[in-house]
Design goal:
alpha/beta; seven-stranded mixed β-sheet; two-stranded antiparallel sheet; 6 helices; 9 strands
Length: about 180
Amino acid sequence: MSEPELQLVARRIRTFPDFPIPGVLFRDISPLLKDPESFRACIRLLASHLKTAHGGKIDYIAGLDSRGFLFGPSLAQELGLGFVLIRKRGKLPGPTVSASYALEYGKAELEIQKDALEPGQKVAVVDDLLATGGTMCTACELLGQLGAEVLECVTLVELTSLKGREKLGSVPFFSLLQYE
């Protein structure tokens, strides 16, 4: 991994204490998205990792609603792959499969179109951040319902103190930047 590129990416993540509630240290990716050079570096680093780890074995990149949509299409293009949407319930037309997951207060559901992938296709899942791992784990379950194989999950930022990586079980996980 290119250390100068990683530092360029890291400098574009800013921190806001007590947002959205007291006690939370929010990691804001907005400056990274504003800066083309940093954003390109982020995509190159994620692509380089996936190429090294999986060679040409990945068939598709799947992105999580909604910030995974910011990184996923660019990552897919960098790798010469297609991009698949995993959305919040009720946002996709046509036949879908869904899976629910627990939130702090209630539950949420993710969906994917039934014809998004064929059984046996290999997928890498991307999102901006891994916190508790609930959304990412549910996305892996959805892909499994379609018979796809999740090769790895990748994010820009990982909040290590929340142990989301553990929730993914045996699914490999990679993040560019780690924070407590």
